[in-house]
Amino acid sequence: MDLKTYSDGRNAYALIVGISKYQDPHIPPLKCTTKDARELSELLIDPYLAGFKKENIKILLDDEATLSNIKKAIGGWLFKKANKESLVIIFFAGHGGLEEDRTGTEKDNLAKYLLPYDTDFDNFFASALTNIEFNRLLLSIKTKRLVVFMDSCYSGGVTEKISRDVKLVEDPYKKISEGEGRIVIAASQPDQRSFEDERLGHGIFTYHLIEALKGAADCDEDGYVTILEVYDYLSKSVPETAKHYANGKQEPLLRGECKKDIVLIVDREKIEQIEREEIKKKNLKKISEWYHNEEFDEELLDLCYRLIESSLEDLNNDEKKVLKSLTALLSNKISISTFRHEVEIIKSFEQPISKLEIKDKKLLEEDVSKLDILDMTSMNAPEKSAGDETKEKIKKNIRKNNPDYQIIIISLEIKSQALGAGGPRFESWYPDMKIR
After folding, report:
1. What's the predicted TM-score (pTM) here?
2. Mean pLDDT of 182-194
């Protein structure tokens, strides 16, 4: 895949963190974060989309998402599991926070934190995860395909119930995105809030992130959803929804080095469908070329076109045999002359009658029923009780001399010819018509 990197589900890992209720009652609860985390986890496991192995996803919800467990998950589990070629996704949905910088390292004198479940509201420094420490943990992961989604924010303060939080001068996401192959997509700009809405059942950012990963972001419809496609989709949809539901401003942000696009989702069904269509186009082109080169006549061209365009269920046994030979021809396993010869052999046994032709055949059955009725009404009781051989002679004699029979037989022949069902095929359907 040109300018894209893809790691299949067997070498992909995810840490999903969602915190709705905090241990410290001074930190306001959030309504949708655990649901955000669960639904994203389910999507990543879906074998028709991301295809992550279930055991390759660690999900920490509420009281599981302590500072210690988050650090162990990154610095322990992901450090041991992921290699240079792995795809690693980290998702955090919860509060962010600001506190006066105690170390003098921040240019704006504000330390930026992600708030784990067991955060002490009065002492972020001792109980929360600083961006600097978060970055150090991420650097321990060997992969060159690391994507971090952060549905949290640093403006508004944790006392604001409508926003996921906590004014900044320095970009809090810059440090997190340091390193090769590391991308951070945050729910909002540093000075904006990240909204959630119960009507959506999600944070606005995560609601659209799930949509994007399910295929809404696949702008070129190639079956692959990449990190740049996801960001492009989020940058358009999130601001519109935030304005509509919260009357607020929320614009996702991307930070990091992205020399090569990273594939996050592979829609296998869509890709298989695209591949089938491509193969069909190539095959039809080949057949057309054989016809123009006079290696196929028009009848054979039409037959091959119909076989390729039809579904297997709509073909009878003989047509399936021809299709098998055609597949061998298109795969260069047999020659054109061999294919033509095999088609003639199959046709010599029985003319192919497709389901469409069978539907046409049913149009003739009304006249055949009339013949059967006339047979029964024209014979007297002794004739009806005669043996089969005698009865057939009686029928033929009646049909030759009864004008009603002749009208029905002519009707049958006209209809069968109009439907292209004349000749031997017509006689095979109605052998007693040969009396004419």
Report:
1. 0.68
2. 88
